[in-house]
Amino acid sequence: MAIRVTKKCFLLSTLGVLVVAAALTVTLVLVLRDDEEISETYRFAASSIEVRLEEQPDHRYVLSIRRGDDRVQRITFDHDFTDDSDIETFPKGMRLYGNGHSVEIREVEDSAGFAYLSISRTLRKGQIGSDVLHLHDTFGAEQTPLHWYGGPELMEQYYPIEKLRFDDYPYITKELHSAAIIERYWLSTAGVFFYVEKEVPLFIDQNDQVLRFTAKKELPYYTYDDEFVFNYRIGVAADAREAHQKAVERVLNQPVDIPDERMVRQPIWSTWVRYRRPISQQTVLDFAREINAYGFKNAQLDIDDLWEVCYGSLTFNTITFPNVTEMTETLREMGFRVTLWVHPFINKNCDPWYTEALSKGYLVKSHNETIGYNTKWWNSGENEASYINFNNPDAVEWYRRRLRELQELGIDNFKFDAGETSWAPADPDIEGTTALLPSSQTVNFVRMCAAFGGMIEVRTGWGTQDLPVFVRMLDFDTRWGWNNGLLSLIPTLLQMNLNGYPFVLPDMIGGNVYGDDILTKELFIRWLEASVFMPSIQFSKTPWDIDEESITISKKFAQLHETYSDYIIQRMRLAVSHGTPVNPPIWWLDPTDKIAQTIYDEYLLGEDIVVAPVLAEFATTRDIYLPKGTWRDGNTNRVHEGGRWIYNYTAPMDTLPYFVSATFQLN
Questions:
Q1: Which domain of life is it from (predicted)?
Q2: Which phi and psi (to 5°) does residue 485 adopt?
Q3: Residue 270 domain-assigned?
Q4: CATH assignment at residue 178
């Protein structure tokens, strides 16, 4: 039901009230205003949600969303609709138009406790749509400030995400800033979520007050059609947890199965940090023997960069790997499965494979002839590589066939690297729905990878939450702080879970030791502790590279992870059946807990374990906030009531603070 309030349309409105009242026996109250501004209110009958569209003195419009007496969100349509703008109503919503823009606000769903609406418009090339979300509104009788979750994966992963800053930021998967998971989803503590449709050429700006959605036909999006859409959806529920569950059901999806269980139970071992490039058959075998000799278990051993003849050949170098079949058989006898690092690039000096791909149209080409097929990645110079076109089914089959040939040598599966759209030449001239470019390249790459089964890992995604595979965090640096260091680990875990990716593979213990970074014993141990209750553990630098105590502590925490692996798998199965995060934020247990809403250095495993690792250098104590519930200390067995702080919890280097629900029984 809609109610109009306007002075300039008084006679028409009066007539409208009489007609509606006679036909529907609905009483509408008309209020005269002292100015020429107009407004309209639409009420969701079942959910008691109300949206009010109101003209501002500058002829912009503000949409206010109210739940009962509480305003839970404001959106400003940042366009001068001019003084001849108007609002018309229809049975399921209302339409604002003026100065070349028409915005439709439509009810999508209305049920007890949940309202779902869409904001949509069609724009022509040259037009810009820009809507502003007010981040720091307050709501409720106590005027509680809003906090926000979701948004992009980033190198400096602040949490809650209202702390992030963006300036005209194209919202596509990219290697820059580690933006590999970049779902168009934002969730507030007021129980409101926003989801911007995939077809929108979206840019965002964010400061300490607002998040701006801008739709415009500019690169890196496809720019050769005349019209485009600016559509998004808004869901309003009782609280953030309920809103997120509604979003999973409607826009985020949930995985169809769980990934490989052995990758959950036992550590993954990678050659990357310990050996860098190139790698050799003898080095791989020596590494495996060391792992066994020191008494560690394994899920698999990953052969990383550089095993190929040249980058993109997908062919073993027979000098460094003289007998791959013999190597894989030996590793299997030692109890190892073997995975292989692969990527979507071909360097130009990698013939005959490059020439074949180029001649058959398997590479991404730019509309810009100056760019052509040229790109650059971390293992090439400028314009010395090309990117495989995974939007081309023939190129996908060519790539897939060559991977299967590697499996015939005894390779069990693959670690798929890259896949973000920023690696391809800008302005790609490739197949696919134009409105989904360039990010459809990420989708098709990841879906090709997932066809190899649950033992793989990828590191990017866009609307691919349904895939039953591990998604790895991008490379972390070997640091303590927010700058892509240990302090960013838990916020990244939470960001991925709340974007619908619950099968998180944390980066290698201790980070990647790039540049001048130094991996200390303390940082290695604290990193391992922080990862214990995440879905998987991945080593490259080894405990025996440090000292005997590190070996003892590492075995202790690898065993602790294995002890709880059945529960991790149980929570993974719940992610499949119910769409719940495997590692939620601690506010998940009480979405109204104002303290829990801002905690960035703790996380849950399911709903029964609170994990509060020490993340500061030289620290041997920390303050811990326990959420709602009764909790048993995993180290001392002491029982604590939740909803309060434990101050100065003692945690020397070999101690991980964690708490188990008093009612929890480990099977």
A1: Eukaryota
A2: -110, -160
A3: no
A4: 2.70.98
Selection from 6, 69, 2 nearest residue 33 by Cα: 6
Q: Residues 125, 225: contact at Cβ < 8 Å? A: yes
Amino acid 139: pLDDT: 67
Q: What are the backbone dihedrals phi and psi of residue 540, each rounded to the nearest 5 degrees, phi first?
A: -135, -65
Residue 314 host element (H or E): none
Distance, CA of 543 to CA of 549 (rounded, Å) = 8
Range 531-550 burial, b when 16+ CB lie within 10 A, else e: bbbbbbbbbbbbbebbeeeb
Residue 219 near residue 366, CB atoms below 8 Å: no
pLDDT for the residue numbered 33: 38
Report pTM: 0.94
Residue 601: half-sphere exposure toward Cβ, Cα within 13 Å: 20
Cβ 503 vs Cβ 582: under 8 Å: yes
DSSP code at position 309: S
What DSSP state is assigned to residue 661?
Answer: E
Over residues 169-227, the pLDDT tens digits come to: 999 999 888 999 999 999 999 999 999 999 999 999 999 999 999 999 999 999 999 99
Q: Return d(Cα 193, Cα 349) in angstroms, integer.
A: 48
Q: Which whole-number Å values give the CA distances from 347 to 81, 141, 380, 633, in the listed order?
A: 52, 61, 7, 54
CA–CA separation, 1 and 93 (whole Å)? 8
**Pick from 333, 279, 339: which is nearest to 505 by CA?**
339
Kind plus residue range of the DSSP H or E element containing 604: strand 603-605
Please check whether residue 28 lies inside any domain of the structure: no
C-alpha dist (Å) from residue 469 to 79, 172, 407, 535, 646? 43, 21, 18, 12, 37
Query: Contact 385/425 with Cβ under 8 angstroms?
Result: no
Q: Rounded CA gap, 49 and 116, in Å? A: 10
Residue range 69-83: mean pLDDT, rounded: 92
String of DSSP letters for 445-480 = HHHHHHTT-TT-EES-BSS-TTS-SEEEPPPPPS-S
Q: In this structure, are residues 246 and 114 in contact, taking their beta carbons and an 8 Å threshold?
A: yes
Q: Please indicate, yes or no, if residue 157 is contained in any of the structural domains.
A: yes
Q: Give the relative orientation of helices 521-531 and 489-498 as an angle to the nearest 10 degrees.
A: 20
pLDDT at 174: 94
d(CA 367, CA 33) in angstroms, rounded, equals 54
Instruction: Write out 49-91 in H/E/C secondary structure.
Output: EEEEEEECCCCCEEEEEEECCEEEEEEEECCCCCCCCEEEEEC
Q: Is the dihedral of CA 520, 522, 528, 531 positive or negative?
A: negative
Would residue 131 count as lying in a domain?
yes
* Complete edge-to-edge strand list for the sheet that includes strand 639-641: 603-605, 609-611, 658-661, 630-633, 639-641
Confidence at residue 24, expressed as pLDDT on a 0 to 100 scale: 30
Find the domain containing 64 and state its range: 39-249
Q: How many domains does the chain have?
A: 1
Tokens standing for residue 654 = 């070999």
Q: CA-to-CA distance for 640 and 631, rounded, in angstroms?
A: 5
Contact between 129 and 79 (Cβ < 8 Å): yes
**Phi and psi for 227 in degrees, rounded to 5?**
-125, 155
